[in-house]
Amino acid sequence: MQVQVISSVNEASSAQFVHKTAIIIDVLRATSSIITALAAGSSGVVPVETVMEARAAQQEGDLLCGERFCKKIAGFDLGNSPDELLLNSVKDRRVILTTTNGTRAIHKSTRADYVLVAALLNASACAKAAVDLRRDVVILCAGSHDEFAIEDGLCAGLLLSRMQERGSAPLEMDDFGLAMLSLYQERANDIKETIRKGATGKRLLKLGMGRDIDLCSEVDTFAGVPRLQANGDTLICSCS
Amino acid sequence: MQVQVISSVNEASSAQFVHKTAIIIDVLRATSSIITALAAGSSGVVPVETVMEARAAQQEGDLLCGERFCKKIAGFDLGNSPDELLLNSVKDRRVILTTTNGTRAIHKSTRADYVLVAALLNASACAKAAVDLRRDVVILCAGSHDEFAIEDGLCAGLLLSRMQERGSAPLEMDDFGLAMLSLYQERANDIKETIRKGATGKRLLKLGMGRDIDLCSEVDTFAGVPRLQANGDTLICSCS
């Protein structure tokens, strides 16, 4: 099984995903939010690229969530925050989510055979799902402000480590994958501390959102692996 | 001191280097070749971007060296190989060098206040030189085939590690720099093995150039730090 790791959404082209399993990572915070919302009983998360699309997608009962530059969008119900999602009732409601990089990364990968949503929160379950799907894999680290984000790299390395343990044949990784595996192995016991040193971690701490870092730094809290699926014209993430 | 690390030459824009010290890394093999040629007594290495420029720059006594896709260019004296440079007499001769990524990376950085040429071979000396120059630093990993190359990332991490030891104030690294520092720390005792697992390492092994990997994997063999300087219209690397 071949695995390619892409360092940020700007580095990805949609053709790279054809015939592959795509794994999208945006630890701080889009994919952590999607996993958390579904674990809390949301009926599905609709990732959209723009504020306008978010408003257009909203139906009665839906929660409108999203951020620009780490802050909640004016008029939206919630930001892009696992902490807020846990404090509000999302049970049996759809979440419409737009974020700077994460939802854009999900849309970039739609030519893949399967699109899985990963974060530290569900890494082992996601690694198992990817191995079971028996396709070559492209791991897309969404990044932040068009640049590599260390928390996404850590999560990519954790996925690779788990996939290596699970798979029957050795993984063939590209150079960036090899580097991310080493990053994870070197920092495995200091994940939260490493994330707090990264650019997005520092920005969230400054904005008083340290609780989101705590939540998003947890490994394997959830067993659900959200998949992107088409429901008519709407793309929706769910664990079913 | 702020340090930014760029993952491949395609990610770099020349404006990023203004007022900075640029450190250019292409372990396999352009910067290792430049350092080796100068250590062997070459009077200077002229990095050029194209085969045509190489031929135009050649004066009597100069050695014409370069590669495309790891192979020597037809009609050139030598490839881009530290091994070949050591086996031939470069003493007091200029080397005109064109390579796929490394020489392109050097030209991309010319708006920097200082341009230093680094590889594993001179990492500690280069880290000291960069700290002494007291500018913010941009480390450009040239990469291979427009992608990140693990040997360049390892070298960036080694430089960061040495700069941290040398500097009086803590380094402020971007997320990619933090990741490369961890990569180096995790692989410090297996440098050659790691390089052999990377895409360029595998390609060189297949082409029978394993000896170049051995030479380029050595740490701190040389104390010279080549700098790019203008000599009239010609840009030339030398340790003077």
TrEMBL record, chains A, B:
InterPro entries: ComB-like (IPR005238), ComB-like_sf (IPR036702)
Pfam families: 2-ph_phosp
Catalyzed reaction equations: (2R)-O-phospho-3-sulfolactate + H2O = (2R)-3-sulfolactate + phosphate
Entry keyword ATP-binding: no
The protein's Enzyme Commission number: 3.1.3.71
Enzyme superclass (EC): hydrolase
Entry keywords, A to Z: Hydrolase, Magnesium
Cofactor(s) this protein requires: Mg(2+)
Family according to the record: Belongs to the ComB family.
Name of the featured protein: Probable 2-phosphosulfolactate phosphatase
